[in-house]
TrEMBL record:
Keywords: ATP-binding, Cell membrane, Ion transport, Iron, Iron transport, Membrane, Nucleotide-binding, Transport. It comes from Vagococcus carniphilus. This is ABC transporter ATP-binding protein. PANTHER family: IRON(3+)-HYDROXAMATE IMPORT ATP-BINDING PROTEIN FHUC. SUPFAM superfamilies: P-loop containing nucleoside triphosphate hydrolases. InterPro entries: AAA+_ATPase, ABC_transporter-like_ATP-bd, ABC_transporter-like_CS, P-loop_NTPase, Siderophore_ABC-ATPase. Residues 6-242 form the ABC transporter domain. The keyword Membrane applies. GO terms for biological process: iron ion transport. One of its GO terms (cellular component) is plasma membrane.
Length: 260
């Protein structure tokens, strides 16, 4: 039986008193890649912000590894869960290594310097993400795909069981999108980390997910494996499109051939 590592129960979230997520229930399986899909404004990003406590919930509870997150400090949560927002930015004049080292903040006291042990962890993550040769480069000199690898490396440096990513392929060309998603898939397979992300591209969502979650109007209305989710009926309800579904010739996952 699959174990749920994260459970969201009856959660409601608002922006400036405008309700976005409404009494939502959803669970995420340990060691799997779960992808959240849905139309713009349905609450996908808001849900991730609520889970990571960047946005205060109004109702409900979030259970992380069988513990209510209300009972955990921010640092305790940061040792179990990393969140990569949609548009991460770095200050001027910082190197790739500087940014990745920020991922170690939950393990350090205020003003404590990076230990030798932490430097080893950072080096390992830089190697793992193919960034070691760029470690002393100013992050603002990197390409979009390289920058996204740096942010992922920073999240990996936290050494968490769960990584949340809000549209990690935004603003990237197709080649860099595949590069980033292949990296996340490889990390999931080699480390067993649970990955939860929001994606807009339905075919990429199907290709790289173990489980898909469909949101609409602030609620989860569909969930299942890609073959259950990528159907004309569900896609019409979620996005208002007439979808024609085929099969990927390589991994046999469902793909949207065209939509009207």
């Amino acid at each position: 039986m699959e174990k749920n590592i994260l459970e969201v129960k009856n959660i409601s979230l608002s922006y400036q008193k405008d309700p976005i997520v409404k009494e939502l229930d959803v669970s995420f399986m340990k060691g799997k890649i779960s992808v959240i899909i849905g139309p713009n404004g349905c609450g996908k990003s808001t849900l991730l912000k609520g889970i990571s406590r960047l946005l205060k919930k109004e109702t409900g509870s979030i259970i992380l590894n069988d513990t209510n997150m209300d009972e955990l400090s921010n640092k305790e949560i940061a040792k179990q869960l990393a969140f990569l927002p949609q548009s991460a930015t770095a200050p001027e004049d910082v190197t790739v290594r500087d940014v990745v080292e920020l991922g170690r903040y939950p393990y350090r006291k205020v003003l404590q310097k990076v230990s030798q042990e932490e430097k080893i962890i950072v080096d390992e993550v830089l190697q793992q993400t193919g960034l070691f040769h760029l470690r002393d480069e100013n992050i603002n000199n990197l390409s979009g795909g390289q920058k996204q690898r740096v942010w992922i490396a920073m999240a990996l440096a936290q050494k968490t069981e769960i990584i949340l990513l809000d549209e990690p392929t935004t603003y990237l060309d197709l080649g860099h999108q595949i590069e980033v998603l292949n990296l996340l898939k490889e990390l999931n397979e080699t480390t067993g980390q649970t990955i939860i992300m929001v994606l807009h591209d339905l075919n990429l969502a199907s290709r790289f997910s173990d489980y898909m979650i469909g949101m609409k109007d602030g609620r989860v209305v569909y969930e299942g494996v890609p073959t259950e989710m990528m159907t004309p009926t569900i896609l019409k309800d979620l996005f208002g499109i007439e979808a024609y579904i085929g099969e990927d010739p390589v991994d046999k996952k469902p793909i949207c051939l065209r939509f009207d």
